[in-house]
Amino acid sequence: MSLLIVGTVAFDAIETPFGKTDKIIGGAATYIALSASYFTKKINLVSVVGDDFPSDTIKMMQGKGVNTDGLQVLKGQKTFFWSGRYHNDMNARDTLVTELNVLADFNPAVPASFQGSEFLMLGNLTPTVQEKVLDQLKVRPKLVVLDTMNFWMNVALDDLKRVLKKIDVLTINDEEARQLSGEHSLVKAAQKILVLGPKYLIIKKGEHGALLFDKEQVFFAPALPLEDVFDPTGAGDTFAGGFIGYLASTEDISFENMKRAIIYGSAMASFCVEKFGTERLLNLSQNEVDDRVQQFVELVQFDIELI
Amino acid sequence: MSLLIVGTVAFDAIETPFGKTDKIIGGAATYIALSASYFTKKINLVSVVGDDFPSDTIKMMQGKGVNTDGLQVLKGQKTFFWSGRYHNDMNARDTLVTELNVLADFNPAVPASFQGSEFLMLGNLTPTVQEKVLDQLKVRPKLVVLDTMNFWMNVALDDLKRVLKKIDVLTINDEEARQLSGEHSLVKAAQKILVLGPKYLIIKKGEHGALLFDKEQVFFAPALPLEDVFDPTGAGDTFAGGFIGYLASTEDISFENMKRAIIYGSAMASFCVEKFGTERLLNLSQNEVDDRVQQFVELVQFDIELI
Q1: Most A CBs within 10 Å: which of B194, B220, B246, as the mutation test of the A interface?
Q2: What single string gives the DSSP state of each residue in B68-133?
Q3: What pLDDT sits at residue A93?
Q4: Element of type H or E holding A78
Q5: Can you tell me the distance from the alpha carbon of B122 to that of B144, in angstroms, rounded to the nearest whole number?
Q6: Inter-residue contact A14 to A233 (CB < 8 Å)
Q7: Domain containing residue B215
Q8: Inside any domain, residue B17
Q9: Cβ(B57)–Cβ(B113) under 8 Å?
Q10: Band of residue B307 on the pLDDT scale cut at 50, 70, 90
Q11: Is B294 in contact with A306 (Cβ distance < 8 A)?
């Protein structure tokens, strides 16, 4: 089934303890789309860049099954740029530069040919921009997943809460879950957040894995223990892309299948952090993905028969 | 098979955001023995207390299958006392009081009737005291598990490293693994630590679960997401007690069975933190334990068939 992805396509410059990059390709929608492309080739992208964005990259994405008819290329304007520095433990990062550029006035337009997309991934953006996309869809998608961050909780909480009423799955990290709910316990936080609208909540805990909640159930997926986390940029978006890409490819939005989707998302994220930026996501083989998922199976599966 | 437990039997006074206790029963060996008693009734305890320690508690432990012939009760002396305060996130704690008392000159004596114990749990103690127990055993146990902490890495690293050469399983937390190995990555840390002697390493990550490593494999068990962690005191020891108690009861020290043992240990630890001190460990039913283990199964199990 077709998957509509909305989010940033951007330039990033990244410093980690392992090195630094000049401007490389980044953006939430980029990571989401690349990750999802390993599961489905019916991807529709809504985003915006300036005319400084390389057409080769757009062609590369098209080659991976991404329809870029909804990617606005604004003449004489510059692409969104973010620069950040990670520290030794990779959990904390400093933002060095944020140049909104084309993102400042982003007015998303869903092409007519994108109508009817059954799956919608709203990458991290101003909540009102996310809402504008939802409002343009004539038929509500089968599943709407929204990613957001603490920044929007600080500056646009009412907008965010309004959008939360319209979605199915919310993905945020543990600190954001605590902020949004006012609860330290993630179990209590989840219960409060599920009252705000989403039927499912995914709490991302970085190297400590991810939790999936609905009102009755909880599922936990670990992150793969890695020798090195080279660059965590985009890991959460890559996770989301694998998650919704797998769901779109299997056309099954049951809790049981969401468990599998989270494992696939975690596997994709474990590749993402192995190199700078999107590099590791560009040329994975099906075998590499399957082997990685098998590592997750071996990591957590045990066999207990209760007496 | 019989299980020999060496460690502290103590008084604790605990403050958490939920309340505070006067002197209550604590100590690593107490938690280990209570937890293990749900799996095996052949428990031999080596420890020391003063004559201020309540005989009712000793009788209670005997009632749970703990042979206290190796528990020295020193006349005119006082039991080891520790007092600590936890903060909101429960991951950090301040030690308020440490009175070593009988522990200052603890000279462990293994009774003749304890010779031949097939499983040995060396709870956190001075490494030379742990070693003295090992040296008194005429037949090496089938499995030796050792718990230690950063304090001994700071003040008795050479002693600790000597003892590590004689054990099978080391249990430490993530920060201790990093300190002992000099590696931030837990995967790299594990590889270095396994060279020091232990065949297996368990890295305890508190609310983030636990990892089991041998030289070739890794297994991850989550902690159960709880509404409230009331008091984390003793959780690591309760985990260790469930782990070795399950192994002793099943007489199987394969990696596959250690996975199960870690789930049982995690289940026991999830009870421990629900009330102050040992309270929750005193009267669990087999059904409660089984239900809790079933929750772990439901928390992590998924069903992926790779194509």
Answers
A1: B220
A2: EEEEEEETT----EEEEEE-TTSS-EEEEEEE-GGGGG------GGGTT-SEEEE-SS-HHHHHHH
A3: 87
A4: none
A5: 7
A6: yes
A7: 3-8+27-68+106-300
A8: no
A9: no
A10: low
A11: yes
Q: Does B186 touch chain A (CB under 8 A)?
A: yes
Scan residues 97-116 of B and list those with Cβ closer than 8 Å to A. Answer: none
pLDDT in tens, B254-297: 999 999 999 999 999 999 999 999 999 999 999 999 999 999 99
Q: Is the minimum CB–CB distance between B139 and chain A shorter than 8 Å?
A: no
Q: In chain B, which residues have their Cβ closer than 8 Å to the Cβ of A221?
A: 300, 302
- Of the candidates B61, B58, B41, the one whose C-alpha atom is nearest the C-alpha of residue B245 is B41
Return the number of other C-beta atoms located less than 10 Å from residue B18's C-beta.
13
pLDDT in tens, B210-234: 999 999 999 999 999 999 889 999 9
pTM for the model: 0.94
What CA–CA distance (Å, rounded) separates B174 from B183? 11
Q: In this structure, is residue B89 part of a structural domain?
A: no
* Residue B90 pLDDT exceeds 90: no
Q: Which CATH number does the domain housing residue B246 bear? A: 3.40.1190.20
B141: nearest Cα among B162, B122, B160, B164: B122
Question: pLDDT band at A307, cuts 50/70/90?
Answer: low
Looking at every residue in chain A, the average pLDDT score rounds to: 96
Residue range A49-65: mean pLDDT, rounded: 98
Cα–Cα distance for residue pair A27/A43, rounded to 1 Å:
16
pLDDT of residue B93: 87
Scan for tokens 């996310």, then name that residue.
A130
Give the Cα separation of A170 and A122 in Å (integer). 10
Q: Is residue A91 part of a domain?
A: yes
Nearest to A1 by CA among A142, A130, A126, A106: A142
The residues with which A4 forms a beta bridge, in sequence order, are A44, A120
Distance CA B121, CA B46 (A): 10
Kindly state whether A254 is in contact with chain B, defined as any CB-CB distance less than 8 angstroms.
no
Q: Is B255 on the interface with A (CB under 8 A)?
A: no
Q: Answer whether A211 touches B (CB < 8 Å).
A: yes
d(CA B151, CA B135): 23
Enumerate the residues of chain A whose CB falls inside 8 A of the CB of residue B217: 298
Which uninterrupted H or E stretch holds A151? helix A150-155
| Residue B306 counted as domain residue | no
pLDDT tens column, B131-185: 999 999 999 999 999 999 999 999 999 999 999 999 999 999 999 999 999 999 9
Asked if residue B157 lies in contact with residue B174, where contact means CB atoms within 8 angstroms, the answer is no
Query: Residue A70 pairs with which residues in a beta bridge?
Result: A46
- CA gap A3, A143 in Å, rounded: 10
How do residues B20-54 score in pLDDT, each as one tens digit? 999 999 999 999 999 999 999 999 999 999 999 99
Predicted confidence (pLDDT) at residue A1 exceeds the cutoff of 90: no
- What mean pLDDT is predicted for residues A144-150? 97
Q: Collect all residues of chain A within an 8 Å Cβ-Cβ radius of residue B208.
A: 205, 208-209
Number of domains in chain B: 1
Shortest CA gap A88–chain B (Å) = 8
Which pLDDT does position A41 carry in this prediction?
Answer: 93
Number of A:B CB contacts under 8 A? 95
Cα–Cα distance for residue pair A257/A246, rounded to 1 Å? 9
The three-state secondary structure class of A137 is coil
